[in-house]
Design a protein that fits this description.
Blueprint lengths: L5 H12 L11 E6 L9 E10 L18 E10 L5 E3 L5 E2 L10 E16 L5 E4 L16 E2 L3 E5 L5 E6 L2 E2 L12 E7 L1 H7 L4 E7 L14 E5 L32 H17 L7 E6 L12 E2 L3 E2 H16 L9 E6 L1 H12 L7 E4 L33 E4 L5 E4 H11 L8 H9 L21 H11 L1 H8 L4 H5 L3 E6 L7 H11 L10 E5 L14 H4 L3 H16 L12
Parallel strand pairs: 1-10, 14-15, 14-18, 18-19, 19-22, 22-23
Antiparallel strand pairs: 1-4, 2-3, 2-6, 3-5, 6-7, 6-8, 6-9, 8-11, 12-13, 13-15, 16-17, 20-21
Length: about 575
C-alpha cells in the first residue's frame, strides 16, 4: 500500500469532511438515515453510523473492530438533525475497512443504523465542543443508553444499482440499571467541583469499594487503601459471594486465550477471591476501583489534561479523601498503594510519579506506552510517519497489534482509520484517540490537537514535544530524578510486561528499565520483570498463564503492599487497628 499522493489525499479528506449536502448526486447507491419524532422532538447532534454485516449471529453494531473479523461501518457527523430529516451515506462517505460502499460486493447483508448522540459542552477554557457523554455504559457507542438505532434488516445490496435505501432509527438503547450494594461491595458517587468547573456542567466521580472482612465488627479500625486502576468498572469485578453452578452454565469460548468455558473459569475465580478475601490471614484493607468515564473515553487516565480537565487532582483531592473518610481509611501516603494492568498499569505508574508523596508504591502491569520513543513501535520524536516505516522507496506498513507469534492483526493505519469512521476530532472512544485526547494540547477548534494526521500518518513533532514534557513518563523520570523526584520514588516502582505484548508495550518498558537500572543517589530499588512469549496483560506471575493470573491482581499485590507498609510506616503509625 502506498501513501496517498497529494491529489488523492485531498480526495480522501473529502470522505471525512465534505458536508453531507454537497455529496455527489451521481452516486448510484445511497442510504438515507433518519429518526422519527417519537424518538426525539428535538434536533440532535452526533455521529451517524451505517453498519453492514454478512454475519447473522449478532447485531452489526457488535461486529465492528480492527481485527480480521470486523464487518463494515460508515460514518458522518450530524449537527442539529431534525426528526424526519435524512442523512445520506453514499460512495463518498468514508468507511472501514472498505473505504466506500461502492467497494461492497453485491449480495445479501444485514444492515443497521445507529446515531451516537453528542452533547454540547461550554468549557472554562472558552471552547465549545460537542462530545458523547458517558451514560453509565463506560463510553461504548454500541451500548450507550439514549443512542438511536434501527433493528438489523436483511437486504440485497448492489452498489451499481441506482437506489436510495431508507433506514429509520426507531429504537433507543435503554438506560442501565445501577449496581446494588452488598455487605462487602459499596458504590459511591460525588460531584467533582474541579471537573464541573472545567466542563461547565455537573461532572461526577465514582468508586466501587470492597470492604474488608470484619469491617462492621471493628469500628475503631483504620485501614490502608488499595487503588486498583483499570477500565470503567460497572461494579467491583471479580468478586462473588456465591459458588457458581458451572454445571448449568453455558460455556463461552475465549478466543483471546484459546480456552473453552472461560466464563466458568472467571466465575470460579471470583468465588475463590471472596474466600481468600474473607479468610483468616488475608490483609484487612479497603480496595477501590475508580469510575471516571468522560466525554472522550471510559477512563480519564487519572491525570490532569488540557482536553479532559483536572482528573488527576479531582481523584486525588476530592474522591480519595471522600472514600477514606466514609470508609475509615488511614488517609496518609504511606498507607496507599496502586496496581493495575494495561491502561491501569500506566495510571498506577503515572499517578505515582505525578503524586509521589501520596502513595507508597505502584505495581504496573503491561502499561500503556511509558516512553514515547516507543509509542507502540512509533518514535513520535524522530519518525516522520506513524503508518509507514521511513523509506525513500518503500511504504511498509507499521503494525498496531500482533499475536504471540508476531503475526500482524491490524496495522496502525487500519486502527486509526476505524477511529475516523467512528468519530472525528478524537471522538471515537477508542485507544489512539484517548491517548491523543489525554496527552495533546487543545487545538484551535477546541478538540485535541492531533499527534499525527489521521488519514496519512504524518507526525506533528511540535505536538510530540508537548507530549514529552508532560506525559512521557520515562522522560519525566530522567529529567527530574536528580532534583528530588528520585528520593520520593525509591522502592515504589514495580513494572511487569510480557515480551510478546500484543501492542508492543514491552518496547517502552525496556527503555524505562534501562533508565531505572542506571539510577543512583538513590537507586530506584524496585522491580522490572518480563515473561518470554507472554502476551498483553502479563502481570508478574511466572506460575500461571495470563488467562489465570489476570484474575488475581488483588491476591498478588495487596500482601506485597502490606509488607512494604510494615517496613516503611513512620514512627507511631497505626499498624495494629486493622491487623485483626
Amino acid at each position: 500500500m502506498k501513501l496517498p499522493k497529494p491529489c488523492n489525499l485531498a480526495f480522501s479528506l473529502l470522505f471525512v469532511f465534505l458536508p453531507n449536502t454537497l455529496l455527489s448526486q451521481n452516486t448510484p447507491l445511497r442510504f438515507s438515515l433518519s429518526f422519527p419524532q417519537e424518538r426525539s422532538r428535538e434536533a440532535l447532534d452526533g455521529r451517524m453510523l451505517l453498519l453492514i454485516s454478512s454475519d447473522s449471529t449478532k447485531e452489526p453494531r457488535f461486529q465492528i473492530g480492527e481485527g480480521a473479523e470486523t464487518q463494515l461501518v460508515f460514518g458522518v457527523d450530524v449537527d442539529g438533525l431534525k426528526p424526519g430529516s435524512q442523512v445520506m451515506i453514499d460512495a463518498n462517505t468514508f468507511g472501514f475497512p472498505k473505504k466506500s460502499i461502492s467497494e461492497i460486493p453485491a449480495g445479501w447483508y444485514w444492515v443497521q443504523g445507529l446515531l451516537h448522540r453528542y452533547e454540547t459542552f461550554r468549557r472554562a477554557d472558552g471552547h465549545t465542543v460537542k462530545l458523547p457523554m458517558d451514560r453509565g455504559e463506560g463510553q461504548h457507542w454500541n451500548l450507550a443508553p439514549g443512542n438511536l438505532l434501527s433493528a438489523p434488516k436483511k437486504m440485497w445490496i448492489d452498489p451499481k444499482k441506482r437506489e436510495t435505501i431508507p433506514i429509520v432509527l426507531d429504537k433507543e438503547i435503554p438506560p442501565i440499571e445501577p449496581p446494588k450494594d452488598t455487605k462487602y461491595i459499596k458504590h459511591v458517587k460525588i460531584k467533582s467541583e474541579k471537573l464541573s468547573h472545567f466542563w461547565g456542567r455537573p461532572m461526577y466521580l465514582g468508586a466501587n469499594v470492597l470492604l474488608p472482612e470484619g469491617f462492621g465488627e471493628h469500628p475503631d479500625a483504620r485501614y490502608p487503601l488499595m487503588v486498583y486502576h483499570g477500565h470503567f468498572p460497572y461494579t467491583f469485578g471479580g468478586f462473588s459471594e456465591t459458588l457458581p453452578d458451572t454445571a448449568s452454565m453455558k460455556g463461552e469460548y475465549s478466543k483471546r486465550f484459546n480456552l473453552p468455558d472461560y466464563n466458568k473459569i472467571e466465575a470460579m475465580a471470583a468465588y475463590e477471591f471472596y474466600k481468600e478475601w474473607t479468610a483468616p490471614g488475608f490483609p484487612r484493607v479497603v480496595a477501590i476501583e475508580i469510575q471516571h468515564p468522560n466525554p472522550y473515553y471510559d477512563d480519564s487516565y487519572a491525570v490532569n489534561s488540557a482536553n479532559l480537565g483536572p482528573y488527576g487532582d479531582a481523584i486525588m483531592y476530592e474522591l480519595i479523601p471522600f472514600v477514606e473518610k466514609k470508609f475509615r481509611c488511614i488517609g496518609e501516603g504511606w498507607s496507599r498503594f496502586m496496581y493495575g494492568g494495561s491502561t491501569g498499569g500506566w495510571e498506577a505508574l503515572a499517578v505515582q510519579i505525578f503524586y509521589p508523596d501520596e502513595f507508597n508504591g505502584c505495581f504496573a502491569a503491561c502499561p500503556d506506552p511509558v516512553d514515547f520513543r516507543a509509542y507502540g513501535i512509533v518514535n513520535v520524536y524522530e519518525h516522520g510517519n506513524a503508518y509507514y516505516y521511513d523509506s525513500q522507496w518503500k511504504t511498509t506498513p507499521r503494525p498496531a497489534t500482533r499475536n504471540y507469534l508476531g503475526e500482524t492483526l491490524a496495522t496502525l493505519e487500519e486502527a486509526n482509520h476505524l477511529e475516523i469512521v467512528l468519530g472525528t476530532n478524537s471522538r471515537s472512544g477508542e485507544q489512539w484517540d484517548i491517548w491523543q485526547a489525554v496527552f495533546s494540547p487543545v487545538g484551535s477548534n477546541g478538540y485535541p490537537k492531533p499527534i499525527w494526521d489521521k488519514m496519512t500518518g504524518k507526525i506533528d513533532h511540535a505536538v510530540a514535544q508537548h507530549w514529552r514534557e508532560n506525559y512521557d513518563l520515562c522522560y519525566i523520570l530522567r529529567r527530574d530524578w536528580d532534583t528530588g523526584l528520585g528520593k520520593k520514588l525509591e522502592g515504589k516502582i514495580h513494572i511487569y510486561c510480557g515480551e510478546a505484548d500484543n501492542y508492543f508495550l514491552n518496547n517502552a518498558v525496556y527503555l524505562i528499565e534501562e533508565f531505572l537500572k542506571s539510577t543512583n543517589n538513590p537507586f530506584y530499588g524496585g522491580e522490572v520483570d518480563y515473561e518470554p512469549r507472554a502476551e498483553h496483560c502479563w502481570n508478574g506471575d511466572h506460575t500461571r498463564p495470563n488467562a489465570f493470573s489476570r484474575l488475581r491482581y488483588h491476591q498478588m499485590f495487596i500482601p506485597r503492599s502490606v509488607e512494604r507498609i510494615l517496613k516503611t510506616a513512620p514512627r507511631g503509625a497505626d499498624l495494629t487497628s486493622w491487623r485483626y
